[in-house]
Amino acid sequence: MAVGDSFVTAGDLDVAGLTARERDPDLVQLLTPEGERVHHPDYDVSLSDADYRSLYRDLALVRRVDVEATALQRQGELGIWASLLGQEAAQVGSGRALAPDDMVFPTYREHGVAWCRGVDPMVLLGLFRGVNLGGWDPAVHNFGLYSIVIGAQTLHATGYAMGMQRDGGDKNAVVAYFGDGASSQGDVNEAFVWAAVYNAPVVFFCQNNQWAISEPLERQTRIPLFKRAHGFGFPGIRVDGNDVLASYAVTKKSLEDARSGQGPTLIEAFTYRMGAHTTSDDPTRYRLASELEAWKLRDPLERMKSFLYKQQIVDQSFFTALDAEADELARRLRTGCREMPDPEPLAIFDHVYADGSTHLDTQRAGFESYLDSFADTAEETR
Amino acid sequence: MARALNEGLRKAMEADPKVLVMGEDVGKLGGVFRVTDGLQKDFGEDRVIDTPLSESGIVGTAIGLAMRGFRPVCEIQFDGFVFPAFDQIVSQLAKLRYRSSGNVRMPVTIRIPFGGGIGAVEHHSESPEALFCHVAGLKVVSCSNPVDAYFMIQQSIASDDPVIFFEPKRRYWEKAEVDPAMTPDPIDAARVVRPGRDVTVVAYGPMVKTAMDAATAAEKEGRELEVLDLRSLSPLDDATLLESVRRTGRCVVVHEAAGNGGLGAEVAARVSEAAFYSLEAPVLRVTGLDTPYPPSRLEETYLPDLDRVLDAVDRVLAW
Ligand SMILES: Cc1ncc(C[n+]2csc(CCOP(=O)(O)OP(=O)(O)O)c2C)c(N)n1
């Protein structure tokens, strides 16, 4: 053996299994990319035609929010936008599986889940416009604040779930959303440990969209992410994240398990980020256009659309009406965003402490008279 | 400045095969600010390492690599994301030399783009430098211009001590000629970047330009501001600082970080302790407010600007 032979470089390792393939036995799928309904022994759902239509409606409106926000960023109305293009089914499927009293801990890309929780997309635009740092009350929609620090929210979710356990009574569960990149953070792995040993009613929903900014999945893991759960002592499932029905079914089942005292589950929703990481990112620097083209064939909306057509659940008038609804939503967002006022300068001092702070009160007063001094000068020179 | 840092890194990597660059997205993408652009192409994946998304991992493994004789340069993508690595930096990196009675060297450089003014979302505009200055065993520096960026990054990498290297992200696009043949100032020396006799304005990183702009504006009113660029935040170059304040008799310290417990407090204390009888007025601080960094539509209000510096200058002169 020559010197150096013992070194294994990352590229040499077998990465089989990282990539989910169609008809993979490990991949839960209820709708093929062609929109054929298939069945799964453990995860199946029977939904009414109205449910199917309304799932599609959510997918379409969420996509429209995303497209409109991306355009608003391009027009300088938003500082940045994190697009969910391609991840609609994972988010709407899992979001729709939640009970009203379940709690969600999202990252910064969960606009589809926010939609399912009834959070007005206008509120999300405020955050990306920079008029506030989120600002919504998590208790109103049971939807936590967006977490920008990668992975931090998985521990909060676990703690919240432990709180539910201790409160007893009502049986609810928590979902923590995170990405494939986040799976490398210490916090996420610590959350797995805690959730497992306390049997906390939490579902870890990892949207594996294949990329953490420029870094492919192979930079974060050498085994499929869902298989990690086993090492922590709870089940892991891989679901086709571009299949809204499967995402719904798998999340529903995992939530039921959590509620009935069976502890955490890790769901790996296998999907793809079709857009840039954010509007500040240039994906052409690190990924091939052909990859995107391949994933376009698995577009979550197209899949559901052809299912609806094939099953004759809808006709053209459904789509015409939905388009009109989406146009109206987009118009409302556009106008509302442009008219959103900047906060008052002194708002900087609001909400720093629940108990107030004499030091900050003094600083605020000093700052106010400093700002007033400009108004005075402006008057004098008039 | 981003180009200068890139060239500085390149120089250091050429000079010493043990120099490694590691961080999130530093390879193919060249970093989100493109500071490491093209380095992976030229030095390979073993020397320019795209790491897992794990800051504690980045610094923790850099410590091990340093013990093995490498000189890692870690990139933390944004200021607000250094905290997952804070434990490794504070409890391990800073103390290993001391704990080993000087037997272990820690030539690790941690680059952190820091500060606000670019309209970013939460956690992307923080100024955590004082938190690191409080920790013995770390050197903390910040460059304010392309020339310093080019030389200081090389000096940091050459140091056998850990260096926390703060890059003022809103000055990345600042331009200047860099002469690689010149002899740079030592990394721990402060520099008078503009001489003046009335007030010493102490700044570093992103605020040096603001202080210079204030000096230009003050000149029109017949006031001569002396602008001092600290460059090294820990240790502080007391000699240069005190020499300047003794001459002008007045001192204003400017930084973006919140004032409470900030570096300005340290500068003010040292000046009062050592140059009390030279002072004509108390040392004033112009800093970020003692609130969390606000949403971007309010950052202009939060950040010290030319007017706030001039206002403090008026006040020390009126004393
Ligand atoms: C602790 C921390 N480190 C770095 C970053 C910068 N950053 C923002 S998003 C991102 C990639 C995240 O990838 P992933 O977890 O897969 O989620 P995705 O964005 O793909 O949805 C990085 C590195 C951050 N926000 N937080």
Question: Key terms for this structure?
Answer:
heterodimer, A: 382 residues, 8 strands, globular, disordered N terminus, B: 319 residues, alpha/beta, seven-stranded mixed sheet, five-stranded mixed sheet, 12 strands, binds thiamine diphosphate
Give helix % range of chain A: 40-55%
Shape of chain B: globular
- Distance between termini of chain A? 87 Å
Rg of chain A, please?
Answer: 23 Å
Oligomer: heterodimer
Number of beta-strand segments of chain A: 8
Q: Average pLDDT of chain A, to the nearest integer?
A: 94
How many strand units of chain B? 12
| DSSP helix fraction of chain B | 25-40%
The share of residues in extended strands of chain A comes to 5-15%
Instruction: Report the sheet with the most strands of chain B, covering strand number, pairing sense and barrel closure.
Output: 7 strands, mixed
**Number of DSSP helical runs of chain B:** 12
Structure classification of chain A: alpha/beta
